[in-house]
């Protein structure tokens, strides 16, 4: 039982990272129906900015986080303007390919800029361990990431469903022309979407950088992919879905490693994923509405 | 590729000896390839500054194999047919090296890998024949694995061990396999075998499981980036027993990632140590730092040594032809390199010992030197 | 007047002769040392990439599904074929056949349950499949595990690859330009309408998926028998992306587009080799720029043909039969 | 015996009962209309008849055999074809390819024949081509056979949709608002066309339409649906003067 | 109020609008009739900035709005009910209506406007929490109208508002249009149902293949033999 609970904690803390990245992923997808493959790389850039601010400039945690979020928000908008806006009326797959291009560009551009070397964060958030119920270990960083993930999920959900910009986002996602007729500025709305999504990615990057203490230019690929999986698992475009999907994926991975064989963790995790999708073809939270004919 | 004809002319330039580099400059082990290539370049520059070899300047054509075996074959073909190289250095991993040695052998071009430690690289596992054209500058996995198993049993008095390997790395799996063989043969018991993949960030689930297995030591032959995170997280979940590893641990980054505290009570085998009190090592570290601004890790040292070995062979070959270079390589004896005085055995492996280092408060402390 | 059948046969024999000439000249150049092995290798890569791109195009371009796990099927074919030659010591043809069939069976197994997923959900399922295959291979020591399978005899050569590439293109071309192909395409255009018009959409989705996987498996078998070694990492999702990029760049729904893109990208990739670290940055920029200027891909859904240059005669030729969709 | 008999057909979406206890008998060669206010459930009836929605209860029988639970393509093979309220053409394909796709189930060569280009393939393709052209001629679209479907004007798209449905060789044709978006002149031509194909192909037609000139002009029997329930059945004259229909649907000064 | 002068529109190489000029005086209903593909929708889209004209000038209340961004134009009090409804299918009815008043920051006004719409279309009130995409065709048209009314426009462009509606609703829609106009909204109406459109309009224009071929008083057009033959079914 104790081991199970510890594994649950491990799974949730791993999952909260997937979830954190998946939130921005799913939001951008929800609004522009674009699988922004570069999202994982914006996360990487965010981590490097955090590293730059803390290790080179010697800033404390919060200002560093803020800097990273702001710069990445701008980066997100720039990427959107240069690489996606011209393709807004093109087939979706074209934007997907440029997204892959942007992703490669960020990865290898960064590699040229900072070398492929691993970088390590300075100790900006001293680690504290807590013991629960006897032997369960949990650290303050795990708690911070979990809390931040949930808070950001709630915040995003609020923004998208309750605020004016959120309503505009959803309108734009369904019909850009009609949205314009409502007086919505489509360009600004999409820019805002990318800014928010990228800022979220940056936050994830900094937190993860501090948590695991090592960053490199390719660090975004796997988490990006897993976050995408998490977003789809929850029902892509659905914010609480992304979070649930992230947690679920993390817990599944932890349980397979802990109780099965770590060798088979990824295959088993993917098998479970496919089974979930077969049972719920639109993801856990997705409504499987038949197109009205 | 375009511009082939022009390049062929250039390659045939009588005043140059062209040596190919088939290294990982991008992809997931780009750090190794870059370090090794840097090491090699450093030595070639030295040689050229001193007038070259056989009165010719060395031209080092270094191409990127993207950390992919197929690309490595592609690169080798290009080096051989386009750039007319007389020998190829690389790659840094056994997997990538295996991808192209057949191409080189077919074309009778010698290959000298800096750090592919898997035995199959120089000996064909199917025929048990030595691969005529393939050599390496590093010791091999069985040696390293065995050394560590002995160390665990004898020096650490361990009876049980858990093996935790990088599932995507033949290197890591090779070391683990030989550790296991040696450890169990001598009465030790492997109580668990776990795996991770290099992209992993979080190892806590598996580590929690390992903690439950309660081993005397954990053998974790991987590369420093993951090992750093693993050791750090292992201490967080409360594993206090020693962690053991191989040359993949060697990097100043290891302590940065894991934290000096967490790394205490860990040991690894290595080709050399940048902290080693040896004039050759000291000189190399200085030169490397001056040129690249970093402390060289063992990949860099081995890249440098590969260059040393190949230049030595070219010198002795007389005419610098691939065939003669191969013969000269075979006869390599007592060449002074950074990682020791090197001679090749009948399997084209250098005869050299391994250093066992202990991490103490973030510093590599020289523990013992084990001769083969 | 010749019958339609005879006329078509005549034309096909003509095309065959041209192909034979291309093959013969290049074969002569390789054997005569005019084309050195580096060029041969790139020709081989081009052939394999054409097979991969055209077969994925059937799934993504013509059938409108969204598969990003093509490398997984390629892996099945590669390992399947290699095992036949290494362990069973059977002839190359059998190895290729077994590899392709294994991949096709995987195609059915994956396709049946997952093809009712739409768009991105299917993408994830296929990506997952690719990773599952890779994960399994890594863990089976009998087939080399992470270390890969080496010592595969080099049985594939220019002749094999050239004619199997031709075969692939021909089969898929003929399939697409038939009532079965039209049924396949109608699903892409409007699935609900297709079903209402009597088309068994499940059957045709699975069929496209199976044929696509079959040829991916064939490409895998050829790959294994040219490069001596295969490793699980060669078939990871980045490889799938590479193939996808070729399909999209060439134009989804254009076979000739896929061929052109496969050739172009292979050459670009080879010629960027000397740029080392910069190469992927350049490659990425190229990708973005090409997509910005030709979002529908180089060919869109059109096929490249000489007719594009002599529009006038177009009305007489081919029209009567109006076969090729998007011609 | 009725060709199509629908018994107590009902469906609900969540709490909403979109259609309840719908009954209908269509005989061979009938030309029937289904009208009713917006949201009455007319399209939903079509969707159940063609297998797009699975009814919550009730039965649909064609020639005495139940259609419930069959897939849309199977129902089409049984002889039911339809058009859609919001046009669903294969937009990026040519006009003739739209028809050829619909001929698919009647193609006379198999997969092997196609891939190996056996003689049967050429014969089969020729037949499909000729039949498609014939049908296009009937619908006055033959001169546009090479246009992309999406480039046709609205009225022609509607006609093409009907032609495509005809290509599946149905016994029953269901038309969902065929005159929507057409001007009176075009509507008039459409009426002629509907009468003509019924006669020529010996068809049974059921159509949904809000344009009363068309419904009253061609239908022999009209079913009126309101809130998912039939409120009247009768000839155009009976319907025109039915109190409930006027109240719910036609409005006072019905023309 | 609105003046369109010699506007030309191209879709790639297709010259869809070949010099259309028209005028909508304050307080009137002006209708645009014509066959399919004549260019009516393109004209409306050009007026509200969704398409940029190649040449020509559009002024609204004296201000040049040619090439201005749609949201800016909407802000000035001009709204379109687009062809094919274009409601936000995945949002509930009430959110669609709220979006109609996107530019209005006054919550009370928005609530009032919404109440007005519900009174006008009781069916929408019944379905206010249903996703708009699952509404029937007619219900969707009502929603589109209601949504446009939410912004209380001074000039309303309507693109085939009666398409797909039951006869009773068609009448209702037309009476709503009339009523709106009487309450002061100027209306530019595009209709396939030429007879009804002309019967409520003040002025009419007949469009054919991108050109105005006939213009005049609505009553006169209704009597004109050409119009009768081509658009009124004889
Ligand atoms: N998939 C669905 N989910 C929820 N409600 C639905 C669905 N399909 C239809 N409805 C509801 O069922 C009712 C009937 O819809 P239907 O489309 O059949 O109307 P209709 O009679 O065709 O109307 P119209 O003439 O306007 O097209 C409507 O109220 C609609 O909102
Ligand atoms: N996005 C587009 N791309 C290319 N051509 C277009 C586009 N939109 C409209 N057209 C063409 O422009 C012309 C005018 O179309 P428009 O939609 O304005 O006509 P309309 O009068 O509104 O017709 P309808 O009564 O069918 O709605 C048509 O020939 C049409 O095919
Ligand atoms: Mg309807
Ligand atoms: Mg229009």
From TrEMBL, chain A:
CDD domains named in the record: TM_PBP1_LivH_like
Topology in membrane: Multi-pass membrane protein
Keywords: Amino-acid transport, Cell inner membrane, Cell membrane, Membrane, Transmembrane, Transmembrane helix, Transport
Biological process (GO), any one: L-alanine transport
Gene Ontology molecular function: L-isoleucine transmembrane transporter activity; L-leucine transmembrane transporter activity; L-phenylalanine transmembrane transporter activity; L-valine transmembrane transporter activity
Main location: membrane
TM spans (from-to): 12-35, 96-118, 138-160, 192-215, 227-256, 268-286
InterPro entries with a match to the protein in the record: ABC_BtuC-like (IPR037294), ABC_transp_permease (IPR001851), BCAA_transport_permease (IPR052157)
Subcellular compartments: Cell membrane
Cross-referenced SUPFAM superfamilies: ABC transporter involved in vitamin B12 uptake, BtuC
GO-annotated cellular components: plasma membrane
Similarity field: Belongs to the binding-protein-dependent transport system permease family. LivHM subfamily.
Annotated PANTHER family: BRANCHED-CHAIN AMINO ACID TRANSPORT SYSTEM PERMEASE PROTEIN LIVH, HIGH-AFFINITY BRANCHED-CHAIN AMINO ACID TRANSPORT SYSTEM PERMEASE PROTEIN LIVH
Protein name as annotated: Amino acid/amide ABC transporter membrane protein 1, HAAT family
Source species taxonomy: Bacteria, Bacillati, Bacillota, Clostridia, Eubacteriales
TrEMBL record, chain C:
Keyword field contains Membrane: yes
UniProt xrefs under Pfam families: BPD_transp_2
Keywords: Cell membrane, Membrane, Transmembrane, Transmembrane helix
GO cellular component, one term: plasma membrane
Residues that span the membrane, as ranges: 12-35, 41-59, 66-86, 92-112, 121-140, 160-176, 206-228, 243-268, 275-293
Subcellular location(s) per record: Cell membrane
CDD domains, per the entry: TM_PBP1_LivM_like (cd06581)
Name of the protein described by the UniProt record: Amino acid/amide ABC transporter membrane protein 2, HAAT family (TC 3.A.1.4.-)
Predominant localisation class: membrane
Organism expressing this protein natively: Desulforamulus putei DSM 12395
GO MF terms held by the record: branched-chain amino acid transmembrane transporter activity
Topology with respect to the bilayer: Multi-pass membrane protein
From TrEMBL, chain D:
PROSITE patterns (UniProt xref): ABC_TRANSPORTER_2 (PS50893)
GO aspect biological process, one term: L-isoleucine import across plasma membrane
Highest rank taxon of the organism: Bacteria
Domain (ABC transporter) ranges: 4-252
Record keywords, A-Z: ATP-binding, Nucleotide-binding, Transport
A single GO cellular-component term on record: plasma membrane
CDD domains: ABC_Mj1267_LivG_branched (cd03219)
Signal peptide (from-to): none
Gene Ontology molecular-function annotations: ATP binding; ATP hydrolysis activity; L-isoleucine transmembrane transporter activity; L-phenylalanine transmembrane transporter activity; L-valine transmembrane transporter activity
A Pfam family of this chain: BCA_ABC_TP_C
The protein's name: Amino acid/amide ABC transporter ATP-binding protein 1, HAAT family
Source organism of the structure: Desulforamulus putei DSM 12395
TrEMBL record, chain E:
Pfam families: ABC_tran
Keyword list, A-Z: Amino-acid transport, ATP-binding, Nucleotide-binding, Transport
Residue ranges constituting the ABC transporter domain according to the UniProt record: 2-234
SUPFAM superfamilies listed in its UniProt record: P-loop containing nucleoside triphosphate hydrolases
GO biological process: L-amino acid transport
InterPro entries, sorted: AAA+_ATPase, ABC_branched_ATPase_LivF/BraG, ABC_transporter-like_ATP-bd, ABC_transporter-like_CS, BCAA_Transport_ATP-bd_LivF, P-loop_NTPase
Gene Ontology MF: a single term: branched-chain amino acid transmembrane transporter activity
Family from the record: Belongs to the ABC transporter superfamily.
Protein name as catalogued: Amino acid/amide ABC transporter ATP-binding protein 2, HAAT family
Source species of the chain: Desulforamulus putei DSM 12395
């Amino acid at each position: 039982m104790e081991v199970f609970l510890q594994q649950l904690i491990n799974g949730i803390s791993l999952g909260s990272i997937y979830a954190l990245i998946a939130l921005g992923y799913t939001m951008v997808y929800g609004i522009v129906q674009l699988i922004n493959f570069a999202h994982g790389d914006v996360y990487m850039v965010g981590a490097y900015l955090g590293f730059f601010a803390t290790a080179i400039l010697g800033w404390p945690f919060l200002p560093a986080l803020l800097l990273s979020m702001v710069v990445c928000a701008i980066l997100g908008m720039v990427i959107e303007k240069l690489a996606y806006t011209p393709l807004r009326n093109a087939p979706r797959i074209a934007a997907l390919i440029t997204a892959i291009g942007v992703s490669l560009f960020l990865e290898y551009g960064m590699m040229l800029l900072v070398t492929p070397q691993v970088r390590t964060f300075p100790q900006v958030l001293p680690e504290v361990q807590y013991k629960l119920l006897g032997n369960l270990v949990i650290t303050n960083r795990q708690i911070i990431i979990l809390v931040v993930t949930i808070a950001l999920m709630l915040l995003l959900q609020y923004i998208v469903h309750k605020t004016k910009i959120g309503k505009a986002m959803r309108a734009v996602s369904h019909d850009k022309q009609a949205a314009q007729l409502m007086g919505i500025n489509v360009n600004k709305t999409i820019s805002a979407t990318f800014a928010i999504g990228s800022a979220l990615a940056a936050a994830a990057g900094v937190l993860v950088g501090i948590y695991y203490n090592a960053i490199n230019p390719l660090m975004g690929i796997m988490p990006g992919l897993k976050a995408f999986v998490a977003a789809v698992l929850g029902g892509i475009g659905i914010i609480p879905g992304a979070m649930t999907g992230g947690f679920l994926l993390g817990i599944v991975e932890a349980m397979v490693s802990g109780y099965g064989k770590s060798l088979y963790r990824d295959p088993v995790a993917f098998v479970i994923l496919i089974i979930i999708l077969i049972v719920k073809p639109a993801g856990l939270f997705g409504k499987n509405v038949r197109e009205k004919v | 590729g375009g511009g082939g004809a022009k390049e062929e002319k250039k390659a045939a330039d009588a005043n140059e000896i062209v040596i190919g580099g088939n290294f990982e400059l991008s992809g997931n082990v780009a750090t190794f390839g870059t370090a090794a290539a840097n090491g090699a370049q450093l030595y070639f520059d030295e040689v050229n500054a001193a007038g070259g070899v056989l009165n010719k300047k060395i031209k080092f054509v270094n191409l990127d194999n993207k950390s992919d075996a197929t690309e490595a074959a592609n690169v080798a073909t290009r080096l051989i047919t386009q750039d007319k190289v007389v020998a190829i250095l690389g790659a840094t991993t056994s997997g990538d090296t295996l991808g192209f040695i057949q191409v080189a052998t077919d074309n009778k071009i010698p290959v000298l890998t800096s750090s592919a430690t898997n035995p199959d690289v120089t000996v064909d596992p199917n025929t048990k024949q030595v691969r005529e054209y393939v050599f390496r500058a590093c010791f091999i996995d069985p040696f390293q694995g065995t050394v560590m198993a002995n160390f665990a049993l004898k020096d650490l008095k361990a009876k049980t061990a858990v093996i935790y390997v990088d599932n995507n790395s033949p290197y890591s799996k090779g070391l683990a396999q030989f550790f296991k063989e040696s450890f169990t043969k001598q009465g030790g018991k492997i109580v668990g075998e776990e795996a991770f993949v290099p992209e992993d960030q979080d190892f806590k689930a598996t580590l929690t499981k390992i903690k439950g297995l309660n081993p005397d030591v954990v053998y974790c032959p991987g590369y420093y980036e993951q090992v750093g995170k693993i050791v750090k997280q292992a201490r967080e979940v409360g594993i206090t027993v020693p962690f053991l590893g191989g040359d993949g641990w060697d990097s100043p980054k290891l302590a940065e990632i894991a934290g000096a505290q967490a790394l205490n009570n860990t040991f690894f085998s290595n080709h050399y140590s940048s902290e080693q009190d040896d004039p050759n090592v000291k000189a190399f570290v200085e030169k490397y730092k001056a040129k690249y601004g970093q402390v060289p890790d063992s990949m860099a040292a081995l890249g440098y040594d590969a260059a040393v070995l190949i230049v030595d062979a070219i010198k002795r070959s007389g005419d610098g032809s691939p065939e003669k270079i191969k013969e000269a390589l075979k006869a390599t004896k007592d060449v002074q390199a950074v990682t020791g005085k090197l001679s090749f055995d009948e399997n084209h492996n250098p005869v050299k010992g391994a250093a066992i280092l202990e991490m103490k408060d973030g510093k590599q402390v020289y523990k013992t030197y084990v001769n083969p | 007047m010749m019958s339609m059948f005879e006329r078509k046969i005549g034309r096909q024999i003509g095309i065959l002769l041209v192909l034979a000439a291309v093959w013969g000249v290049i074969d002569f150049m390789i054997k005569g040392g005019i084309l050195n092995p580096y060029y041969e290798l790139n020709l081989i890569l081009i052939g394999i990439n054409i097979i991969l791109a055209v077969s994925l195009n059937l799934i993504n371009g013509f059938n409108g599904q969204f598969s990003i796990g093509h490398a997984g099927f390629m892996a099945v074919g590669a390992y399947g074929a290699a095992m036949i030659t290494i362990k069973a010591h059977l002839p190359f043809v059998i190895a290729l056949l077994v590899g392709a069939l294994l991949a096709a069976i995987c195609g059915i197994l994956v396709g049946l349950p997952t093809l009712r997923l739409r768009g991105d959900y299917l993408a994830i399922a296929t990506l997952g499949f690719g990773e599952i295959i890779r994960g399994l291979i890594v863990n089976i020591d009998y087939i080399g595990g992470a270390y890969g399978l080496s010592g595969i005899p080099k049985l594939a050569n220019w002749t094999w690859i050239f004619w199997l590439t031709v075969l692939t293109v021909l089969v898929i071309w003929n399939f697409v330009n038939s009532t079965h192909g039209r049924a396949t395409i109608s699903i892409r255009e409007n699935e609900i309408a297709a079903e209402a018009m009597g088309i068994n959409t499940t059957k045709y989705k699975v069929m496209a998926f199976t044929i696509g996987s079959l040829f991916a498996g064939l490409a895998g078998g050829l790959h294994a028998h040219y490069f001596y070694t295969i490793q699980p990492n060669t078939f990871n999702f980045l490889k799938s992306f590479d193939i996808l990029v070729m399909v999209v760049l060439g134009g989804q729904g254009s076979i000739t587009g896929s061929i052109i893109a496969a050739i172009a990208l292979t050459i670009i990739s080879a010629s960027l080799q000397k740029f080392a670290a910069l190469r992927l940055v350049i490659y990425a920029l190229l990708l973005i720029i090409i997509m910005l200027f030709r979002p529908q891909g180089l060919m869109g859904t059109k096929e490249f043909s000489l007719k594009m240059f002599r529009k006038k005669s177009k009305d007489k030729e081919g029209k009567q039969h109006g076969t090729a969709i998007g011609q | 015996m009725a060709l199509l008999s629908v018994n107590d057909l009902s469906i609900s979406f969540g709490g909403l009962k979109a259609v309840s206890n719908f009954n209908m008998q269509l005989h061979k060669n009938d030309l029937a209309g289904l009208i009713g206010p917006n949201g009455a459930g007319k399209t939903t009836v079509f969707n159940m008849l063609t297998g797009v929605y699975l009814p919550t209860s009730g039965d649909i029988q064609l020639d005495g055999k139940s259609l419930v639970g069959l897939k849309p393509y199977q129902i089409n093979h049984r002889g039911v074809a339809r058009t859609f309220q919001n046009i669903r053409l294969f937009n990026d394909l040519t006009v003739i390819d739209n028809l050829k796709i619909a001929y698919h189930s009647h193609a006379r060569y198999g997969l092997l024949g196609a891939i190996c280009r056996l003689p049967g393939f050429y014969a089969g393709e020729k037949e499909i081509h000729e039949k498609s052209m014939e049908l296009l001629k009937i619908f006055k679209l033959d001169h546009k056979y090479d246009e992309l479907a999406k480039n046709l004007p609205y009225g022609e798209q509607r006609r093409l949709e009907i032609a495509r449905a005809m290509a599946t060789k149905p016994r029953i044709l269901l038309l969902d608002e065929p005159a929507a978006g057409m001007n009176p002149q075009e509507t008039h031509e459409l009426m002629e066309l509907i009468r003509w194909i019924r006669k020529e192909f010996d068809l049974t037609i059921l159509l949904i339409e809000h344009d009363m000139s068309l419904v009253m002009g061609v239908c022999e029997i009209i079913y009126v649906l309101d809130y998912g329930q039939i409120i009247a059945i009768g000839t155009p004259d009976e319907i025109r003067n039915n109190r409930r229909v006027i109240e719910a649907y036609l409005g006072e000064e019905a023309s | 109020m609105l003046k369109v002068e010699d506007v030309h529109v191209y879709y790639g190489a297709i010259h869809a609008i070949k010099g259309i000029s028209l005028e909508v005086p304050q307080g009137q209903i002006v209708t645009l009739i014509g066959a399919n593909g004549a260019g009516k929708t393109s004209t409306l889209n050009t007026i509200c900035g969704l398409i940029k004209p190649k040449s020509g000038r559009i002024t609204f209340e004296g201000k040049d709005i040619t090439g201005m961004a749609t949201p800016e134009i909407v802000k000035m009090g001009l709204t379109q009910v687009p062809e094919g409804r274009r409601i936000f299918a995945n949002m509930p009815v009430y959110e669609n209506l709220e979006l109609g008043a996107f530019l209005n920051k006054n919550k009370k006004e928005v609530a009032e406007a919404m109440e007005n719409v519900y009174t006008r279309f009781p069916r929408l009130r019944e379905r206010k929490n249903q996703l708009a995409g699952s509404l029937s065709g007619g219900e969707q048209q009502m929603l589109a109208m209601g949504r446009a009314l939410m912004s209380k426009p001074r000039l309303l462009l309507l693109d085939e508002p009666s398409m797909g509606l039951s006869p009773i609703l068609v009448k209702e829609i037309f009476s709503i249009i009339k009523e709106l106009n009487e309450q002061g909204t100027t209306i530019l109406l595009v209709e396939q149902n030429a007879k009804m459109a002309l019967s409520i309009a003040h002025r009419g224009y007949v469009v054919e293949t991108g050109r105005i071929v006939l213009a005049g008083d609505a009553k006169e057009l209704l009597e004109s033999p050409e119009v009768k033959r081509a658009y009124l079914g004889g």
